[in-house]
Amino acid sequence: MKKVMKSSIYFLLLMMLVLAGCTSKPQNETASSTTESQTNQSKQEEKKEEPIEITMYYPIAVGGPLTEIIEKMADDFHKENPNITVKPVYTGSYQDTMVKAQTAVKGNNPPDLAVLLSTELFTLKDMDAIIPLDDYIKNDGGDEYINSFYPGFMENAQTEGSTYSIPFQRSTIVLYYNKEAFEEAGLDPNNPPTNWEELKEYSKKLTKTEGNKTTRYGVEIPSSGFPYWLFQAFAIQNGKNLMSSDGKEVYLDTKENVEALQLWLDLAKDKSMPEGVIDWATTPTNFIEGKTAMMYHTTGNLTNVKNNAKFDFGVAFLPAGGKGFGSPTGGGNFYLFKGTEKAKQDAAWKFIKWASQPEIAAKWSIDTGYVAVSPKAYETEAMKAYVEGFPQAAVARDQLEHAYAELSTHNNGQVSKVFNDQLQAVLTGQTTPEEALKKAQEEANKLLAPFKK
Amino acid sequence: MEKKIALQQSVVHLGTKQETKTSKKMKTNVQAWLLFLPSLIFLLMFTFYPVLQTIYLSFFRADLAIPDPFFVGLENYQQLKEDAVFWKVMKNTFWFVFTTVPISMILALAMALFVNRAIRGTGWLKTAFFYPTVIPMIAVANIWLFIYTPGYGMMSQILDVFGFQDINWLGTANTVLPAMIIMAIWKEAGFFMVFYLAGLQSISKELYESASIDGASSWYTLRKITLPLLMPTTLFVSIIAVINTIKLVDHIAIMTKGGPDNASNLLLYYIYETAFNFWNEGMAATLTVVMLVILLIVAIIQIFFVDKKIHYS
């Protein structure tokens, strides 16, 4: 039976090859329609540099015409490097893209290039799916190249002295606030809360009730899906990041974290935030509709809010805790996979290198709302003009100074799951912060134990 | 002597007769198997082979912590027994299935009875009852996500009109599963209605005529004629409904991701999480075996026990 499966897989692969052959044919035909001398010339050129086609899996996680933007990018790259064609393949959400890339790896047909969450580092490494990029970096760019990125973005890309991925579409959490609501509540619209005390106080003032019904909440901090990311902001502000850089240890049940979680819970207890779990996807809508005066959300939603909010809004650093400002980074990096041809890996590296140029990174940031990955991108003319017209865009950049790696460990899916579950249990009033964090720590320790050998 | 020969002859005769009978049987069998072969190949390849492979894998430890899977016997099952999330998920799945299925079936029957009468405008009603079935689950989940949104969602507006406190349906541990069940009923009932409609139309009109001549009340007719004659439909629908409901999973990815704290997590989504978020293949296989066993039990109960109590025709 295994044989049958194998041969059927070969058959499918064969079909795919045939199909791929069909699609590339028209190009050759158009080439042959030109005069013969030209054809000969181009043939000679081809001999010099074999045309290479690489596939790139990419997810879409924010609003806007991302597909067009990516395809435009691939075209631009092709114009500068005529022998390389980058074929972007839209593969759904980050989660879907990861599943597809992994399935492809298991089927011995990995993509040449993929944009995956920066936090997948250990998972991909444990699956032996990706290659370190150290050799490429050494020969092409060196330390200077690595240092050109914001250090907060490089954290998730490196472990045990090696670099495994290059930042591409990155984000952080920022505070969005409704300036009109601030004025209405008698607060200065140019002074958003800067610390936890103010956050609590302002949220209370901004909350509006009619009878026993709340018509506007002070703040919303989403907690569906991946509450660990939002919690990480509080943890960084109050103490230290949640994990070690080798991804083998987590620090969940610290005193500082208990305080942080208590603060989150208190906002709901004060009635200045909705009780229970707040949905990630509907939070921006709530903000745009004026149902909440402030929200914690990704910078990736900046363009969405800018286009849809009918009121003047501000963007600010997340209010500081005992240790100062802080936010985790988020978003996706470029990865190269084991088992692809060397020539294709080289071509993919060329594309990565090309995409991290300041001009390209700046354009990508302006088009999408993601944070540009290097300080140099913010020094380009295009970016300067953009930030001048829309100063909110600079907030995320400035906050990067206080940004640290997103939670990423070995066995990441399961570790973040036990943590998420406990956070939600606290927010829905089923357990206390101390107990929840203790339990999360215990379970995470169990899950990480096999990796410590 | 002659008698003996005759007997021998008849014996010989009998022998050849039997031989032709078996060869004929063989022939029909071969023909049957040949006809069955195309689907058999696909069944073997896409159903039986994966099932066996899954059972095999469930005896292995295969996760991110180890490079090569190794045999652990029943350890995965043992671990599952101690997994609190697993039991929570099983409980959720049980309640989800055993409230969604009967309620949507009763609703489906009621809608079918209502629509089946020859009244003007029932065409529109039929469409209205049926259309949730046509919408893909992903779209349904997105619509209901906003219906349940606290503050301005439809549910909260309705509650507001009647002066009730707003409820965060999807964000509260006690309400999230009922909220999902209501949505599933809305989605599924129309589909089952169609089967009941077909069942109703196949019941002979004469039965109702004679019942009305005998002066039977409509309730009596329903109880003694309609419902018993709809039993085959009911069996069929109940199998479809149970399997369909266990298969409903897309909405979780959109609406809650199983949260808060697994309060809306169902078995199939947990399998997905284990396989593709945790990459714990051994455990995912074990969970799949559990689901297979459950489905098998459901099928056995329905086909061998319930089926016997139904009068066909």
Automatic annotation (TrEMBL), chain A:
Residues 27-42 have a biased composition (Low complexity). Residues 25-49 are annotated as: Disordered. Residues 1-20 form the signal peptide. Keywords: Signal. PROSITE patterns: PROKAR_LIPOPROTEIN. It comes from the Bacteria. This is ABC transporter substrate-binding protein. It comes from Robertmurraya mangrovi. The lineage of its organism: Bacteria, Bacillati, Bacillota, Bacilli, Bacillales.
